[in-house]
Each structure stands twice: as C-alpha cells, then as structure tokens.
C-alpha cells in the first residue's frame, strides 16, 4: 500500500543551521502518528516542507505517492494542515473563510460539507460571525475546519491544542479520533505528551533536526526498563544506594532502578543496613519520562 507520507533523506538548511538533518520515515495510511520534539527540533520545518510551503534543501517527500515538489498540487490536495499559528482574514466571516479556502482547491459547491464541518466543530452558530470577533478557541476550531474543506485523506495538526482550554481539547480530540476511524491518516505534533500517549499508535521523535526515535508507542514504553521506586524508610538512605537516588519527596526518597529486578538488591542492602521499608511504590513509566530520558541522550 502507498504510504500516507514518505520522508526520504530530507535535510533543510537555514544558512549553516541544519533544521532537518537527513530525516527519513514513513507514515502508513490510516495511522495516528505523533511527531514529538522540543522547541526548535524541526517539526514545523518538516510540516512546512510537507505542505509545500517551503522546500527542503535535499531529499524527497511524498504524500500518498505525490512528490511535494514535482507533483506539488496533487500533494497539497491530499494534505490538510492545521497550522500552529492562527492565520485568518479578520474581515471574513467563518463561512466566507471556509468558502475562500475551498476556492484554493477549486471547490465551488462545497456548502453541505462546510455545514457538516461547522456543526462537528461546534461553530454552526458562528458561521456568519467575523473572524476577528471570535475567541481564540473558536478561531482555533476554524483553523481545523479550514484544513479539512477539501476532505484531505492525510491530516497534519501542528500543536493544535496549544493554549486552548480543556473542553476544546477534548472535543477536538474526539473529532480527530473520529476522522482517524473514518480512515484519515493523522499526524500530530504536540507538547502535551499525555495526548500523544493517549491518541497515537506510533511516535517519532526529532531532536536538533535528527530523527532519534521511531517506535510503536508500546515498544517505546517497553524500551525503557528503568523504574522509579519511591520508598519511605525508617532511617536515611545508606551510602551504597545514593547513586540510585533521583530525588526526595517529603519523607520519601525516589530511586531509579535500571530495571525492576534490581529491587531485590536494593532491599537486601536496606536489610543489611537494618533500615526498615515503611512504604514502597513503583512509579509507572509514562511517555514523558521516556521522552525526557531520550532527549537527555539516553538510548532507545
Ligand atoms: N525561516 C527560518 N530561518 C532561519 N531559521 C529558521 C527558520 N525557520 C526555522 N528556523 C530554525 O530551524 C530550527 C527548527 O525550527 P522549527 O520551527 O522547525 O522547530 P519546531 O520543532 O517546530 O519547534 P517548536 O516546537 O518551537 O515549534 C530552529 O532552530 C529555528 O530557529
């Protein structure tokens, strides 16, 4: 099957800065894929190149097989991008904005779909409101609707929930999930790692323009054998265990074990030192800790 997105050896230089450095990966059709990375990792640069808004210095990008340079229009028609910034004409109403956007794709009689989009995004009663009169959250919804006017099979959302309230985040995700279930491929960049963890099947991580991890979410989590264990002890931690200590939490001390099996050794050391364990809790690994660990240079 043709991949939804194929990124092949893509580099992008801004002067001497390598914003993307030989990045390659594929997103299969129907996936819900997360693209993570700290500020400046190159996520937006990659999305701009996918959307044909900027050109990569080298390499190829194909959207459902259409090259973003040699078949730019087809690639663009296949892709819907929800941008990070709110971009709109303040003098147009919501419906006019969507019609205008439809015009870019040569779509004239699109109103039934636009009505459906407005309804799904809770914008029906704002259809005739000028963009400038909308709240930030409402504008954000219009950005999503705009990205979907041409029913693109592949949808990229660049931090769509940055700065929006919990209710909107949840309704937005319910909608995006629905789109994914209807067969759309979704690529999401987010700083909210719990969102990536909850929504996506596969996760790619960029750091300083390089792809440093690409994994099924479950594998990524399993990769990290490390476990943090929180102890409440009858006395201070013995010196022998100090190298494992990551932090104090009130009366508790948190140790990081390279793998959970090391717990035997830790308990033996405590017994030898005649220190009693009053409470012990294993802290579940979440994507955030795996991510932070990898960003600090840890291996997948
Ligand atoms: N037009 C440009 N000219 C020069 N440098 C740029 C330009 N656009 C991006 N960069 C640089 O390229 C690098 C990657 O930026 P990019 O915006 O892609 O990162 P990002 O992962 O999207 O970050 P964020 O999470 O902050 O949006 C950064 O160092 C940025 O300063």
TrEMBL record:
Transmembrane segments: none annotated. Residues 5-233 form the ABC transporter domain. InterPro entries: AAA+_ATPase, ABC_transporter-like_ATP-bd, ABC_transporter-like_CS, ABC_transporter_ATP-binding, P-loop_NTPase. This is ATP-binding cassette domain-containing protein. CDD domains: ABC_DR_subfamily_A. The keyword Transport applies. One of its GO terms (molecular function) is ATP binding. Keywords: ATP-binding, Cell membrane, Membrane, Nucleotide-binding, Transport.
């Amino acid at each position: 099957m043709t991949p939804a997105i194929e990124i092949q050896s893509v580099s992008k230089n801004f002067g001497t800065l390598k914003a993307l450095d030989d990045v390659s990966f594929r997103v299969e059709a129907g996936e819900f894929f997360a693209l993570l990375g700290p500020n400046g990792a190159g996520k937006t640069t990659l999305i701009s190149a996918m959307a044909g808004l900027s050109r990569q210095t080298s390499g190829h990008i194909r959207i459902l097989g259409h090259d973003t340079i040699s078949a730019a229009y087809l690639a663009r028609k296949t892709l819907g991008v929800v941008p990070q910034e709110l971009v709109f004409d303040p003098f147009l109403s919501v419906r006019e904005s969507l019609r205008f956007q439809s015009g870019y794709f040569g779509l004239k009689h699109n109103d039934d779909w636009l009505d459906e989009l407005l309804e799904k995004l809770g914008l029906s009663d704002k259809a005739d409101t000028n963009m400038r009169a909308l709240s930030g959250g409402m504008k954000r919804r219009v950005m999503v609707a705009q990205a979907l006017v041409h029913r693109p099979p592949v949808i990229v959302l660049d931090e769509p929930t940055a700065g929006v309230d919990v209710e909107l985040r949840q309704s937005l995700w319910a909608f995006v999930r629905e789109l994914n279930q209807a067969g759309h491929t979704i690529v999401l960049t987010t700083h909210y790692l719990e969102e990536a963890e909850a929504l996506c099947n596969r996760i790619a991580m960029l750091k300083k323009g390089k792809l440093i991890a690409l994994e099924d979410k479950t594998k990524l989590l399993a990769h990290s054998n490390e476990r943090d264990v929180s102890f409440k002890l009858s006395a201070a931690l013995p010196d022998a265990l100090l190298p494992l200590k990551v932090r104090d939490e009130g009366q508790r001390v948190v140790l990081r074990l390279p793998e959970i099996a090391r717990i035997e050794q830790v308990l033996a050391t405590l017994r030898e030192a005649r220190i009693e364990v009053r409470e012990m809790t294993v802290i579940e690994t979440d994507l955030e800790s795996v991510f932070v660990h990898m960003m600090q240079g840890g291996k997948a």
